[in-house]
Amino acid sequence: MKKIALEEHFMAPGFENYEADVEKMMDARAYKEFALRLPEFADLRLQAMNNAEIEMCVLSQTSPGLQTEKDTATAIRKSQEANDFLAQQIQKHPSRFAGFAHLAMQDPTAAAKELKRCIEDLGFKGALVNGHTNGVYLDDQRYIPFWETLNNLDVPLYLHPADSFDKPHMYEDHPDLMGPTWGWTVETTTHALRLIVSGLFDRLPKLKVILGHMGEALPFMLWRFDSRWQIGKHSKKLEKPLSQYVKDNIIITTSGVCDNAPLLCSIEALGADNILFSTDYPFESTQIAADFIDKAPLSEDVRKRICYQNAQRILKLG
After folding, report:
1. 297 C-beta neighbours (distance < 10 Å), count
2. Burial 219-252 (b: 16+ CB within 10 A, else e)
3. Which of 52, 84, 134, 297 measures 20 to 30 Å from 141, CA to CA?
4. Which of 76, 53, 64 has its CA nearest to residue 25?
């Protein structure tokens, strides 16, 4: 079945220093293959797409990207360079590639301006942000104008994992639990919950945030969120139960989780219209991801929605 994938990574020229932490977490032999594929947009990438029946990939600069840049002016300049570079690659294969903007969140006003340029001038489909920016999370009040711009443009933000700003003590002596094995899930889930409890979605109820890796475990915790929220002390009153914000404002992808049990649970929790196929190229096998969704115990109607129809609707793909 044809597919659209939207957690598919690349590396722009000059961005090698913005990916070093990821490299350190991975087996050297495995990373050698990733390093070969990240800057490549032709034979290797297109062949993997063809083999998996992926019609289109929405591409994004690999993590952590400019979220770790300390100099604001440098971040602004390089975000524009990365987006212009991606636009050039899309022009070479416009029916196969689309893009998410890479933004300098160090300056929310500049990020909003660049987002607007990327959507209106470059034809991108939204933005992808790699977690916090030097310890500042997206629920910070300084980002409200950025969120308003995103809302007015009616495009989603993909919230991608990154390392914690500081190293939690619980990982002491167990650094192998940090990163994609476990730490990124905790970090990204917490970031998403911060957005909810900050009241962001009460302020802008039509906003959509995309989470990869089968929702970073959020779909499996909805009942407990509501149960414990009812008896807790809160600094901000919300208009709805926590679970309802996840259902209304969070979209998830299957990237990096090729397993029927969490897929079926996520469909039950969020509904099939809120789940999109993705692979996490090149860090996961495109073929394994494609075979998984093709063989999952789903009706063909649900499979079509997850494989491509939801992405067409949410990203406004022709």
Report:
1. 9
2. bebbeebeeeeeeeeeeeebeeebbbbbeebbbb
3. 84
4. 64
The C-alpha atoms of residue 87 and residue 118 are separated, in whole angstroms, by 9
pLDDT grade for 175, boundaries at 50, 70 and 90: confident
Q: Are 64 and 130 in contact (CB under 8 A)?
A: yes
Over 70: is that where the pLDDT of 294 sits?
Answer: yes
**Residue owning tokens 């933004």:** 103
List all residues 6 or more positions away from 55 whose beta carbon is below 8 Å from its beta carbon: 2, 3, 4, 49, 96, 308
What region does 40 belong to: left with phi over 0, alpha with psi -120 to 50, or beta? beta
Whose CA is closest to 250, among 284, 222, 279?
222
Band of residue 20 on the pLDDT scale cut at 50, 70, 90: low
SS3 310: helix
pTM above 0.85, yes or no: yes
73-98: per-residue pLDDT in tens? 999 999 999 999 999 999 999 999 99
Residues identified as active-site: 280
For residues 164-177, one letter each, b for 16 or more C-beta atoms within 10 angstroms of the residue's C-beta and e for the rest, the string is: beeeeeebeeeeee
Q: Which domains does the chain have, with CATH numbers?
A: 3-314 (3.20.20.140)
